[in-house]
Amino acid sequence: MSLTIETTANPGQHIILWSKTGCHFCGEIKNYLELNHHHYINLDVADNDGLRDVLEAKYGIRHVPVVEVGRNGTYTAFLETDLEGLARLLAEEAEAAHSSVEIA
């Protein structure tokens, strides 16, 4: 299993990228996250049926990319390759995190 941790732009927001070496869409998402300074953990499912089994149990799929975004142990899965949709999800999660800090 490959684990990569990158820099962060949004403390408190956790991003997990399920990817595979050589996957074009996975590379695009990695580039987007890195260019926008998002911290993420990369789980490479290449040659790892156990990780693909986890994806199947959680989401009913075995393909990547999958991006999980959340905080406090609650995550939203992004199963698309649309970078604009990912940007919206990241912004919504950041806003929710900011709102919960203000309330606390």
UniProtKB/TrEMBL annotation:
Under the heading Gene3D superfamilies, the entry gives: Glutaredoxin (3.40.30.10)
Which InterPro entries does the UniProt entry name for this protein?
A: Glutaredoxin (IPR002109), Thioredoxin-like_sf (IPR036249)
Pfam families found in the cross-reference section: Glutaredoxin
Where do the Glutaredoxin domain residues begin and end?
Answer: 15-71
- CDD domains, alphabetized: NrdH
Recorded protein name is Putative glutaredoxin YtnI
What species was this sequence derived from?
Answer: Paenibacillus nuruki
